[in-house]
Amino acid sequence: MTGIVSSDADERLRASVSALADAAPEFSAQRVVTAPQAVSGLILIAAWVALALATPLVAAQMLVGVVTVGYVAAVVYRVLLFCRGVGDRHRTRVSDAEAKSVPDAELPPYTVLVPVHREPLIGELLAHLEQLDYPRDRLDVRVLLEADDTETIAAARATTCPPHVILVLVPPAEPRTKPKACNYGLVDARGELVTIYDAEDIPDPLQLRRAVVALRRLGPEYACVQAQLGYFNSTQNVLTRWFTVEYGTWFAYLLPGLIAVGAPVPLGGTSNHFRTDVLRSVGAWDAHNVTEDADLGIRLARLGYAVGVLESVTLEEANSDPINWVKQRSRWYKGYLQTFLVHARRPWATLRDLGWRGTAGLVLFVAGTPCLTALNGFFWALTLMWFTRHPAWLQALFDSWLYYAGLLCFVLGNLAVLYMNVYTTRQLGRPDLLVAALLSPLYWALMTLAATKAAIQLVASPSYWEKTTHGLHLSPTDKAEP
Question: Is the predicted pLDDT of residue 390 greater than 50, yes or no?
């Protein structure tokens, strides 16, 4: 696969947008659904419609049965990941002493890509990056600015940047996505390792050093280590508390659980640390995928590389506004669906690359996360209807075995997820999050709304990057400061 290597401006932009699609179209979401996928889908729909016209009850029972079995499988898989992820065996820990023991002369050049868009408080970002404990002559920080984002460019130019910080103007071109900007910045990056930080990130000062030690310890088959993410405004409101509990479970248990069961790891959007040569060789990020991080994690696994989880925390801003949260989460869910559709194009090739364990992870975790969330609303509606009206047609939809499977999933599945949340708050040492953990079903309702929106956008605007507004934790006075 051809990486991004051009230095000519026009060619650099073209490569940033379409290098992956040109070199390996089977891995790109430039076209979300291929012709064979569309034909297969239409055949299945037509067959079900024909069955529904002939025997409506059988068709409805079949649909409900498939959905229920898939739901139960996804819930059981998630519980399995959590159980396997508990403990430290599948997380890489590098102590402060180990991180600091590497002489500066033995540290490799390190590129930090920081894509920003409509982020006027860029001075705060640079201040956080200056806290990184890494020799400045080996640090290559690239702040990636959209060339038509005049507000952020003005704020950046008004800020005194140290010599190791470079402002890179990314020419405006579709798709207007974070991965396209990262590809553009990667072209002439000089680091042997590369990472991404978002505009509001506050990384662990020793994180780069920890990543160097971790990747050397793990060996060349590891292309990346993913640091953990947390939130600095976790107590702002109930939404930020829910978000904190969810991320605590995700990075501390579910991702290590995926490693434990031999499944690919969908990376987070920040604080993932790559070997630059490997990243370029696999085509870097897909500019058309709105969760380019998750997609890259699956692609690395298919191409034979491993991913580790690094015990080092980057603090981010938890989304405190419900509308802004739905925009952000629907983009994530849409990207997970994009990623699944991309890697489901050639099922036998995917099974060959990932094995049955990895393929199960792709189906039950990557596709299962948004699908499970969207189905929550459907099953809650059926449950409410059953207990309030007891309609005969609803009873006819569920055979006895299906009814009991669904009932067990409803009761035990929800209790298991609540238990995971409570366990996470205990392990985090955060009793202040306990009430939010117990109120998680309200959070799930918000997730269902986001998943439904994602499914609609997947059809209407698959590569549209819905901007997340940052700085909501700041007071009006703080926002007004230069």
Answer: yes
